[in-house]
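Re: beginner question about structure tokens

> Can someone show what the tokenized structure looks like for a real chain? I only ever see the sequence side.

Sure, here's an example I had lying around. Input first:
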Amino acid sequence: MPRYFLDPPDGHAYGFPKLFEGDIDALEFDTWLRENGYPDDLIQMFPNGRGCRILTRPDEDNADS
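And the corresponding structure tokens:
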């Protein structure tokens, strides 16, 4: 399973990109961003993860497979 790093607009100011481990299809972007320190005013400007970069990295355990 790949690892995901989420990077919302201006996220660098709030410690992003940050690792998300789980089912990306089931992710509630706004809730996750809020829980990880992204400010509400930016969440309102970019709802549902709009503009959020999703960076993937293969699972290190399976990198040689």
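Each token stands for a local structural state, so reading them left to right follows the chain. The CA atoms of residues 3 and 57 lie 5 Å apart.
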